[in-house]
## 1
Amino acid sequence: MLVALACVVAVLAQPLLASPTSLRLSKRDDQPGLQSSSALVERQVQGIEALLNRTALLSWETGAHLEALVEFHSPSLSPFSSESDWSELTPRDAAFLPPGLLSRVGQIMGNASESGGPQLMQDGSAADPASVGPFVVLANFTLDNDGSELVQGVGRGEIEAAVQRQVDVLLQGTPKTADGAISHRTEDVELWSDFVYMVPPFFAYLGALTQNRTLLQAAYDQCRLYREHLRVSSGDEAGLWRHIDNRFEGGGDMRDDGLWATGNGWAAQGMLRVLASFANQDDDDLQNAFESQARDLGDWVKEIVERTWEMPRRSGLLYNYLNDTSSFADASGSAILASATYRLAYVAREFDGLSSSAPSSSSLSAAERMYRTLITSDGRHLSNPQGVLRPVVDPMSFDLQLDNVRADGSGSVSPEGEAFVLLLESARRDYLANGGDVPDVSADSGADRAGAASSLVGVLAAVAVLLFA
Ligand SMILES: *[C@@H]1O[C@H](CO)[C@@H](O)[C@H](O)[C@H]1NC(C)=O
Ligand SMILES: *[C@@H]1O[C@H](CO)[C@@H](O)[C@H](O)[C@H]1NC(C)=O
Ligand SMILES: *[C@@H]1O[C@H](CO)[C@@H](O)[C@H](O)[C@H]1NC(C)=O
Ligand SMILES: *[C@@H]1O[C@H](CO)[C@@H](O)[C@H](O)[C@H]1NC(C)=O
Ligand SMILES: *[C@@H]1O[C@H](CO)[C@@H](O)[C@H](O)[C@H]1NC(C)=O
């Protein structure tokens, strides 16, 4: 199917290349899909996408799903693209959209225009629905004329109004802390690390595409404020983020001081998207104006990444709460944190002035080891061909392991975990395609070799018992 898509894209691209205004050769420099460096195989990608189609239904799951599709299939449309064209979209770019994106955005818009509510998808979270915002905006910019091809009866005017309602309810209609951090929830003031993936990338993406300084600044300010509230400031864990803070006027009952692995991943990956939107936008004035903010974001992500890989592991995986060995091993948080490490390595190479944010070689090695632990040929953590990731945290209750996960896909699945695998594959691919080195971890790929060695010893022992009994 990827080959077919590539052919369609190539055919569509021909007449575009002939026209003098559309010589966008850079569109072909970002390599989509799997590459020779990938351990993941095509059948697993199909499996993961089928699972996402079936299970990614809630707002943040949809946001993670669509981001994974863009980064994996359409890297030239992501702010991580090797060129700045992603921020100058036209209907010609419709040819590069990932399969399935328009139909999902069409459903979202159909529902949003029916409900008429302020959020793009109805949710008790103030933040999660904003995670689909970038893809509504992406679809909007690539539609022809009045935009009516997206969903019957919903034209461009209504799409734009729905996006504006989502911006307005966040900036003006959601409870805030006294210092201006927007609550993750609609009913009271709660700061969840998850927010940083849901809202700032939306503000930054829309801000870059519409040259809106207010939105770009809001993206940065929310990252800064959330970090001030959630970052551990001293001790061995300094630099990692707690999950949920409620210690201020108007704070609700929900609090989680634990260093949730997935939450640190949401924060790191969200800040990376904001950083790329600042550093890689087409408008030079805005790019210059946000240079120091981009540098801050690089430092803040590096802090999370470096501390993460100093934390303990069990059979190669990070713990659900990073420093708590009584919690369980979690492949989902492990995947997004490995992804963030490769993305950080990529942006530190790609953008001038960010080289000091490059992860250390030991962090990069740890991320590579994690990639190989997750995508082993025996399918222990990612089944083949179904692409089921396990063991994983329950997306609906962040301190429990998800029950009834089955390798064949007939049980429960973590939609966000599935999306994280594609984000990891994409981040690693882009880093390698742009001259990054993959650390050689073959001599020490810990758990796998130890596991293989001990089963070999077991077989030899059994043979010896049979021979000499
Ligand atoms: C997922 O759904 C989209 C939209 O319906 C479709 O284009 C795509 O082929 C589906 N992917 C898989 C692997 O089923
Ligand atoms: C939105 O609408 C579709 C049908 O167009 C429906 O199947 C779906 O459940 C609705 N809700 C969400 C959250 O997408
Ligand atoms: C929607 O697309 C139009 C046409 O490209 C553009 O002018 C407008 O700024 C876009 N609005 C949003 C919210 O994406
Ligand atoms: C930028 O976005 C904000 C928030 O939606 C809006 O109030 C403002 O008018 C926009 N500025 C410009 C110049 O469009
Ligand atoms: C994890 O780190 C936090 C923040 O430093 C600390 O409060 C907590 O006691 C640590 N937990 C364990 C199990 O060490």
## 2
Amino acid sequence: MTCGLNPGFFLMLFCLLHSTEETCPSVCLCISDAVSCSSSGLTKLPHSLPSFCLSLDLSHNHISWLSPGFFNKMPRLENLLMAHNQLKALTPGIFHNVSGLRHLDLSSNKLSVVEQHYFQGLWRLEELLLFNNKITRVEASTLSGLSSLKKVYFSLNQITDFPFFSIQDHSHPFLSMLDLSSNRLTHLQWEDVKALPRLVQRGLYLYNNSLICDCFMYSMFWHWDLRGYDSVKNFKEEHICSINGDPRSSIRFLKQNRFFLNCTVEKPVSQPVTVLLSNVLVSEGERVRLDCQTSLTGTDLSFTWLSPSKGYITKASIDTLISLFPNGTLEIRATKVNDSGLYVCTAVDIKQALNATREVNVTVLLPAAELFNTGYTTLLGCMVTTVIILVYLYLTPCRCSYCKRSKPYDSSGLSSVLFCSTRDQTKNQTDKHVAFIEPEHQTIKGLRIKVAI
Ligand SMILES: *[C@@H]1O[C@H](CO)[C@@H](O)[C@H](O)[C@H]1NC(C)=O
Ligand SMILES: *[C@@H]1O[C@H](CO)[C@@H](O)[C@H](O)[C@H]1NC(C)=O
Ligand SMILES: *[C@@H]1O[C@H](CO)[C@@H](O)[C@H](O)[C@H]1NC(C)=O
Ligand SMILES: *[C@@H]1O[C@H](CO)[C@@H](O)[C@H](O)[C@H]1NC(C)=O
Ligand SMILES: *[C@@H]1O[C@H](CO)[C@@H](O)[C@H](O)[C@H]1NC(C)=O
Ligand SMILES: *[C@@H]1O[C@H](CO)[C@@H](O)[C@H](O)[C@H]1NC(C)=O
Ligand SMILES: *[C@@H]1O[C@H](CO)[C@@H](O)[C@H](O)[C@H]1NC(C)=O
């Protein structure tokens, strides 16, 4: 055998080479499918990392650039954490071979421009964290193709303009968080913002920017506030705008809206008409209360009900049978069958010139007395049956006296009864009896015990 041609040697060599490729760098921790090299003082990427890892944590280091093709050896990578590093830009094509990425954290770096090639091909990406960088600009098609995106964080940067038009229903169907708070946005393309999918609008964070107060801006936030979006509700104090672009005269516009009183006319006329259909089922003679809860939550609401039997009902038209509470709830004290039908409540917020409606379909059933009669008949039927069974059992005492005669089984009254019934099953006549009482098993048990005592 010649040493040099030993296939085992090649295998060993291959394994050695392979294993060096797979080894865990001494500064990192490799745990099952995760590798953590965080806070390891790294100034550049480690030489080799296990190829099978799904999660790679390189955060809190001093990495300033990503060598091309570095992630090619980790095709299964799903989570890449690189927060708190020194990245100024991303190498073109760096993520080309890691299209399985779902979570990418590049927050607290030094990125200055988000170029359109940065995230190309990451169509599985769900979360993108870019907050606390030095971003001044986001190129127009940066987010295009990222069709799985759910959350994007651009907060704490210096962004002055954002390509809202690139986000549409079909391009980003799952996007529910677009955080642009604490940036330097001044004039937004409010038409583009207004055209954003509802889900994106609900999760659009714009507080602490350099917005310039104007009616269109105000009406946008006013509507979001009206709808109770968390993005607005939770940061009322931080929503600021400056009058005429002068930063010294900035106002918390969701708190002090005096400046916008003149805007009323410019508020979009499209009204949030909420139609909530519900069904109410009552028996004639019963009292019913129909609430008028709509999307309007103001304190100065006025309510009108349109009823099928009585027409319009307002505060002024209350009578003894019907009343309208200040909160819009309509009460009918004794319903009649012909009170059935569709009740429509309109809540009007006079100040904001908004109305919303609520519909309730009321069905008044036949007089309850008739229903009770049916129940009563059934009950009576049951009682009669019970009495018949009792009488039947009392009038046929022979079998039990027969039991008592057989001494060995007479240890207790109860056992004799049980024995009695098993013995009885041999007789055809008693079979009929059993069949008769079967459905009322519960009652029969009780009766038997009574008989035994
Ligand atoms: C990475 O992708 C390129 C094409 O984009 C391909 O040629 C190359 O073989 C891939 N590398 C790996 C390690 O998969
Ligand atoms: C507002 O943004 C500035 C930077 O633009 C930041 O320093 C500050 O902490 C932010 N304030 C809040 C309340 O988020
Ligand atoms: C609103 O309009 C009135 C009259 O046109 C004007 O006097 C007032 O200054 C305006 N208020 C604001 C805050 O612009
Ligand atoms: C409206 O007021 C009435 C009477 O005060 C009350 O019974 C009802 O629960 C209130 N409805 C709502 C929806 O708050
Ligand atoms: C309700 O129905 C009765 C007959 O069932 C009728 O006499 C009465 O006029 C009706 N009332 C109204 C308000 O329609
Ligand atoms: C909605 O409100 C406007 C103005 O407040 C009013 O003229 C209109 O009649 C209302 N619509 C309905 C259906 O009540
Ligand atoms: C109201 O309810 C009744 C019974 O459930 C149904 O027949 C009727 O079509 C409903 N009306 C409306 C407008 O939904």
